[in-house]
Write a structure and sequence with these properties.
heterodimer; A: about 140 residues; about 70% helix; B: about 220 residues; alpha+beta; Glutaredoxin; 2 domains; 9 helices
């Protein structure tokens, strides 16, 4: 069981590191345009969110990968995932003209429904992380010694 | 050391190098290049101080919507702004986009790129849903009096597709991820909304930098 939890933790953290990194390596305008496409925020909030979210994804993703503040990081990513899921559901229900979710910058392209399935799976993993406090090969374990 | 202090120290030790790494890699990537690409898909004065590159996909509805702010900007700054169209076909999402780009590229060879461009976008909702867009494009070509033989040769020429792909590759090099992405003297704006909200401001800023007196018309 600890080994499975470790794999899940690395996977969830890795996905967020990849997503945050991809967005940070491109002009911020790209991610702002993604936010604009979801039509739920107006400038300057689109810019504010566009500038903050990739950093938080990268930092909490790295924390989770290394097992640092594991529950807090997993809880933060859970909030992100819930918001992403709601936005994706909304975009599907309102038939917004979004052909690509914009989740990973230029890296991986997913249609909104594909991203919804992925996010739902990641949400389950993040809830498991909060509930189970995985400690195997984690900085939390080292820091508590 | 208390557990709280240990966490603060470790957190700082993780975040600071990570932020530094992102900044360094971004700096190494450099600003989007302004590499020029000679073609016939340019409109506006040749030595204009403002060069606007539009990476676009003929089948993308957002590119069609962006035509309004693009045209508004062009009419406001007609004497200082040059627009260049570059192909960025999103093949996976848009079935006819590469064929549309090929026709447009071949129309460009006969000096009718913009006519073809306007026709393609104005009737985009119709042909993008069609089962076979090829006869539609052929019809546009005929109505624009394109030389049929030259058109067919151009469409069959692998260089046409290579040119489209090389423009897309250029876009990728400039970190283009979606269409339309617009560069005003290298300053990126993604989508019609950003162009509408900030385009004028960016142009004015660029003119100020270059010491050109703004001649904006309202």
């Amino acid at each position: 069981m600890p080994f499975i939890l470790l794999v899940l933790r690395l996977f969830l953290g890795g996905v967020f590191v990849y997503a945050g990194w991809g967005k940070l390596m491109a002009p911020i305008e790209n991610f702002v345009a993604v936010i604009e496409a979801y039509q739920f925020l107006k400038p300057p909030f689109t810019w504010l969110v566009g500038n903050i979210v990739p950093w938080l994804e990268l930092i909490f993703g790295m924390f989770l990968t290394l097992g640092f503040l594991t529950r807090t990081s997993a809880a933060s990513l859970t909030v992100f995932l819930l918001v992403f899921i709601l936005l994706l559901l909304r975009s599907i229900l309102l038939h917004l003209p979004i052909s690509e979710c914009g989740c990973f910058g230029a890296g991986i392209t997913l249609a909104p429904w594909q991203a919804l399935i992925l996010d739902a799976g990641l949400l389950i993993i993040s809830l498991i992380m909060i509930w189970s406090r995985p400690r195997l090969l984690s900085l939390d374990e080292k820091l508590h010694k | 050391m208390s557990i709280g202090k240990r966490y603060i120290f470790t957190g700082t030790a993780l975040v600071v190098p990570l932020v530094a790494l992102v900044i360094v890699v971004r700096l190494m990537h450099g600003a989007p290049s302004q590499e020029h690409f000679e073609n016939l898909k340019i409109k506006g004065p040749h030595h204009a101080p403002i060069h606007m590159i539009v990476y676009s996909d003929f089948q993308c509805p957002a590119c069609q919507s962006a035509l309004v702010p693009i045209e508004e900007l062009r009419s406001q700054f007609s004497d200082v702004l040059q627009i260049e169209f570059r192909h960025f076909p999103l093949e996976r999402a848009h079935r006819w986009t590469v064929i549309a780009a090929s026709f447009a590229e071949c129309a460009a060879e006969q000096g009718k790129f913009w006519e073809f461009h306007d026709r393609m976008f104005s009737e985009q909702p119709m042909w993008s849903k069609s089962e076979d867009a090829l006869p539609v494009f052929a019809n546009y070509a005929q109505e624009l009096n394109l030389n049929r033989q030259a058109l067919e040769q151009c469409l069959e020429n692998p260089k046409t597709l290579t040119k489209i792909r090389s423009e897309r590759a250029m876009g990728e090099k400039q970190n283009v991820q979606s269409t339309p992405t617009i560069f005003i003297n290298g300053h990126p704006l993604v989508g019609g909304l950003q162009l509408k909200m900030q385009g004028r401001e960016v142009v004015l800023e660029e003119l100020k930098k270059l010491g050109v007196k703004p001649a904006a018309k309202n």
